[in-house]
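Hi L.,

As promised, DUF4192 domain-containing protein:
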Amino acid sequence: MTADDRTTTPAPRPGHLPVRLRGPADMAEMLPYLLGFFPDDSIVAVGLQGAALDQGGVIRIDIPEDPADWERTAVESARLLVELSEQRDRRPVQVLLYLCRDPAGGPGGPEGAHAVLARLRPLAAALARAFRDERVAVKESLCVSGGRWWSFLCAGADCCPPDGTPVRAAHQPSPLAAAATYAGLAPRGSRKAIVAGLSPIGPPGSETQRRALEDAGPPFIRELAGPGGREAAVERTAELLAEAMAEFHAGAKELDAARTARLLIGLQDKLGRDRAAEYAEPDELAAAQRLWRFLIQRCVDPFEHLASPPLTLLAWTSWLADDSATARVVLARALELEPTYTLAQLLYESLNAGLAPEALLRVVRRERTTRLRDPQVSPQSPQASQDQGTPQAPPPSEPPPPAPGAGPEHPGPTVDPGPAVVRPAEGRATAPGERSVGFEAHRAPEPDGPGPAPAADRSAAPEGGRPTAAPDGPPAAACRAERVRRSCAHRITPASTRVRPARTHRNRHAIGD
């Protein structure tokens, strides 16, 4: 099971009115606005809180293919939504449920939406039982398939049309679409389309890129063995990044295979990745996002594992561009490739906690300013420690990243990242007196304790193996500090969506008049 799209309720912008849902038709139309994309093969649960039924937490979970897993998935869905809401000090009193699956072959496919409706009915019943066990009433439960919706709560033939009701398309003018747009909500396309944009290229380009990645190993090893060692290799990565960014800013759409391979290798070092994360200013975001997508698509077989850093960078820039929906989907892919990639975990955790990226951005800007002010000061130097307000300590002794390989021949099972709790990364703890450096140098304390030990440095990969996640850093401290502040304040984020109480009506799925 993959549960990769948890959201919290965004605060309405000044002067914006809440969006009100007046029935199941509005529910179906509002779904892509709630998530930021059009879900597919998904269970979506929206918590409703308080007497006014304000929108609370939202979770999206893949529908398991095997019906034998549905009962477990339903229980997990109910638990996740309740936990999410309780983290915000508000328990849901009711829930809106969506089961989204298109017929095989598309809306006009041979399976037909009616077959989807019949197939998913037991899952809807399992979800209703699971939420009832959590003392959360099901306000409405919809099947959305083939551009139409049906209510699982219909009691008779006169309730819903047998052929369903068309879902108003997002591009069609309607009061709800106008209100959602005015409230700053906008879908970014389908989840399938977002994921498809992350796929590696195919032949003949894939063969050229594969050979370039294979050939890039020996020169990189010579760089590391040269007079400047790791620092010189990082500077070379930074030079290539600057060249690539300038070209993409000018409209370029690709790089040659050799430079692409060297960049992908250089980004495996957390110091090289940190330099890439500095391209975060408003006038840099569009070019940076196109560059990270280009690099992601060049992580061809058997080098797919090299995609974790550019995926995380794409998520970072998407978040900065106010596209948290894409950021979540991309981070889910990064954690699928490498479940212990610390920076992806921390960004995911921050998104799911409803934090804004400004605290992290301030840290990135400060490090960039410090480096540009004195190019001779490296992130590992004592002077950099003093400039950043951190205790002076010996630099870490981990070796630089090895040349790329195809990864382990028999990788372990993929760990589901899950949306509710980002699991602490496993690895060695920092030794007394040791100072981690770079984008993830320090972890701020949790509200009730010091927090888990940082993960192993990505640059300390075993010979021939995949690099592991890097330890935490200044942006992580900013995330943790903001979470502590919000936890202590016990503030409830105002809802952007409000569901009006239903009037007594023969149509059981009416959510208002």
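The longest helix spans residues 113-133.

Thanks again for sending the construct details.

K.
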